[in-house]
Every structure is written in structure tokens, then in C-alpha cells.
Design a protein that fits this description.
This subunit might be involved in maturation of a crRNA intermediate to its mature form. It holds the Pfam family RAMPs. Belongs to the CRISPR-associated Csm5 family. This is CRISPR system Cms protein Csm5. Helices cover about 30% and strands about 20% of the residues. With about 400 residues, the chain is an alpha+beta fold. Among the domains are: about 60 residues, no CATH class; about 70 residues. The strands form 5 sheets. It has a 5-stranded antiparallel beta sheet with strand order 9-12-1-16-13. Strands 11-10-14-15 form a 4-stranded antiparallel beta sheet. The chain has a 3-stranded antiparallel beta sheet with strand order 2-3-4. The two termini are about 15 Å apart. About 10% of the residues have low confidence.
């Protein structure tokens, strides 16, 4: 058991299993601060670009209204001195659509700010916090072991709050009453320091928001696909890096990270099969009504089976490890505490005031194909989920 008087350091090898998108909030427009050349996108700082032009004293013809864009673009593509932020592998024709958000960091090295794609330690910390907070909520059979293991830790206020029935209303946690008791939990997490990854390779992927139910997809027209596609810079799978997780006060609650994260994230990982693979729920003895209902609940075979089987095999062979999901587009239910931070959705109820399951079954997926897919209604055998990481403890 770690000594409370000393900090505890955990080292992990981390493998990127599926594309990860961690947005910076910045957008890049073609022929403005993003330029395409030789299957690569070049990102640049538009302010530094203007400074470059001013120092080079460009001819006025570059600023003539009718010819400016063409000449400006040609000049950029042919120049070897433009201060690009970085280049990104890209196999798509973006048709003047913005790159939704690029993954970037502002790393200071030798007093210079570098824009390098990476996975921040804060994103990993958020994933751990979600798993732990969900893990210590009592009342669920699979949480009892974790709840008892961490019960005598430094988060006594939050345990007392969870035990007290006044914090629950209709079996759901009352956010307003519970929030003040979350302070202890927040303070304990201030003791946890997680290192960033090193710079990671990225490329541009297509993404698509899909309703999983087959009944919904049958109603979709091909034209809708073109309107709801996006282009994202994502961290490429099959990369590895090492991180350290430092607990400066050796809190007991962090001793069981492997079990806690496995308990929370494994079920979501296994659920990818449920939504990706076509489920045949029909039985010979089912009535016609039951068969019709089951048919509505079928799912299209979205999954890229070849790539997903490799990912699953790697996870199954890892004995001393756990899964974590980070970044955007992986489902809000994996980023929140069940019954505490409820997912707010204005379309959560239909006109009959009944819960509309189609809104909660929507997910954004990434197209695994490196080439553009067009005129596809269902994207059969082409999709992967966002955000999966595999952690292996280093002794």
C-alpha cells in the first residue's frame, strides 16, 4: 500500500486503438489559412502570413480583387518560405469546406510556441474522473466491489452524500443538493498529475452522424449523407506512447484505477459490437407482431470488421491493462456521471410525451477508409468508433 507521506507514481504504455479527435476550437479555411498540395494540407497562422507578405513587399497585383485569390494561392503553393504551422496527410477533396477543428497544442520550446497534435493529460484525467465517479455510486451490483474498496478513502463527504437518501429524487441523484458535497472529490483530483503524450501523427478523416436503428436508416435519402459529412483531423491508430500518473498524496482511491476503468469502460467497448454488428433477433416462435418489432430494432452492419477484429484481439491479449475513451464524438454517456449530469436534449420526448430512443441512439462515427466515400446510404463495413485508448501498466 502506498505511504500517505509520499507521492505515488504509476507508469503506463498507451496504445491508440481508434481515431481520436480532440478539438482546439480553431477552424481552418481552404485558401485562407489552409492550403492543399500533394495530398497534404498545410495549416498556417494568418497573422504570421500577412507579416510574411509585408516583409517581402509583394507586388500590388497580389491584392487586386479579381486576381488575388488565384495568384495568392499559386504563390503560397510554390513558396518554400511560408511559415506553416504543420502539414496534415489528406486524401479528400474538401470542396471549400472548413476543417472542422484541428487538434493542436501550444507547446513552448526554446521560447517558441509550437502547434503539435497530442493527447493532453487533462483529457486522460477527465476520463479517469468519470470512471471513478460512476464507480463509487452505490446501488448497482457491479459497483459494490469498487465502492467498498474506495470507501475509506479521502472522499468521505461524497460517500456520505451518496449514502444519504435526501440527495436522491425518484431514484436519481439531485444535482443541486449533491453539488456542494462534490468539493472533496474535486480536491482529491487536484493531487493527480498526468503527463501529456508526445507529438502524434494525424491525418484527415471523414465523419458521419448516424442513427443506429435500421428502421431510421431505411428512411434516409442518399442526399442527406453529403450534407452531414464532416472532415476532421484525427490522431491515427496504431501509435503508442508512455505517460506517468503521479498522485502526490498517495490517495487510496487511485490504487484501483485498473479495476475501476475496466468496470466502467469495458461495457461501452463491448457495446460497440452491439451497435456495429447486425443483430438477428428473430425467432421461429415469435409472433408476427414480435417479428415486426424486432425488424425495427435491427442495426446495419456499419463496422469495419477487419480493423475492429484486430482492435478486439489486442484488447483481449492485454492482461494488465484497461480501456479509456477520450476526445469528442464518442457519446456523452461515456463522459458523464449517470443520473447526476443528465444529458439534456430538447428532442428527448416525442409528441406523446414518451421517451424517443432514436435521439439517444445517435452517434458520430469515423470512416475507416482513407479514400472518400460518396453516394453511400448506409456505409456498410466502413465505420469505426472514436476515442479508444488501451493502457498497460509498466512495472
Amino acid at each position: 500500500m502506498p505511504n500517505k507521506a509520499h507521492k505515488t507514481i504509476y507508469k503506463y504504455k498507451v496504445s491508440v486503438l481508434s481515431p481520436i479527435h480532440i478539438g482546439s476550437g480553431n477552424s481552418f479555411e481552404l485558401n485562407y489559412n489552409m492550403f492543399y498540395k500533394n495530398n497534404s494540407l498545410y495549416l498556417c497562422d494568418e497573422f504570421k502570413l500577412m507579416d510574411y507578405f509585408l516583409t517581402k513587399n509583394p507586388k500590388l497585383e497580389y491584392f487586386e480583387k479579381e486576381k488575388m485569390l488565384l495568384k495568392f494561392t499559386e504563390f503560397i503553393k510554390n513558396s518554400k518560405e511560408i511559415p506553416f504551422i504543420r502539414k496534415i496527410e489528406n486524401n479528400f477533396i474538401l470542396r471549400n469546406k472548413p476543417l472542422l477543428e484541428h487538434i493542436s497544442s501550444q507547446v513552448i520550446k526554446d521560447n517558441q510556441i509550437l502547434s503539435l497534435p497530442y493527447i493532453p493529460g487533462s483529457s486522460i484525467k477527465g476520463g479517469l474522473r468519470t470512471a471513478i465517479l460512476n464507480g463509487i455510486v452505490p446501488g448497482k451490483e457491479n459497483n459494490k466491489i469498487i465502492f467498498n474498496q474506495t470507501r475509506n478513502s479521502d472522499c468521505q463527504k461524497i460517500f456520505n452524500a451518496l449514502d444519504n437518501k435526501k440527495f436522491f429524487k425518484n431514484n436519481s441523484l439531485n444535482k443541486d443538493r449533491f453539488k456542494p458535497n462534490d468539493e472533496d472529490f474535486i480536491n482529491v483530483f487536484k493531487d493527480l498529475y498526468i503527463s501529456d503524450s508526445q507529438s502524434l501523427k494525424t491525418k484527415v478523416y471523414q465523419s458521419i452522424n448516424m442513427k443506429k436503428l435500421k428502421d431510421h436508416q431505411d428512411k434516409r435519402k442518399n442526399g442527406n449523407i453529403e450534407r452531414c459529412k464532416n472532415f476532421l483531423e484525427c490522431i491515427i491508430p496504431e501509435q503508442t506512447f508512455e505517460i506517468t500518473i503521479t498522485d502526490k498524496n498517495s490517495n487510496k482511491i487511485f490504487e484501483n484505477l485498473d479495476n475501476i476503468c475496466t468496470d466502467f469502460y469495458k461495457k461501452w467497448f463491448e457495446e460497440e459490437d452491439y451497435y456495429f454488428l447486425d443483430k438477428d433477433n428473430k425467432k421461429e416462435k415469435d409472433s408476427k407482431e414480435e417479428k415486426d418489432e424486432n425488424k425495427k430494432n435491427e442495426y446495419y452492419n456499419f463496422l469495419n470488421k477487419e480493423q475492429w477484429s484486430i482492435i478486439k484481439e489486442k484488447v483481449e491479449k492485454t492482461k494488465n491493462g484497461f480501456l479509456l475513451n477520450v476526445g469528442r464524438f464518442s457519446g456523452a454517456e461515456r463522459k458523464t456521471l449517470n443520473d447526476y449530469r443528465r444529458i439534456q436534449n430538447s428532442k428527448a420526448f416525442n409528441k406523446d410525451n414518451k421517451k424517443d430512443t432514436s435521439t439517444t441512439s445517435a452517434r458520430t462515427y469515423v470512416l475507416s477508409s482513407p479514400k472518400e466515400v460518396t453516394n453511400e446510404k448506409f456505409y456498410t463495413n466502413k465505420l469505426l468508433p472514436f476515442g479508444w485508448l488501451l493502457f498497460e501498466k509498466i512495472n
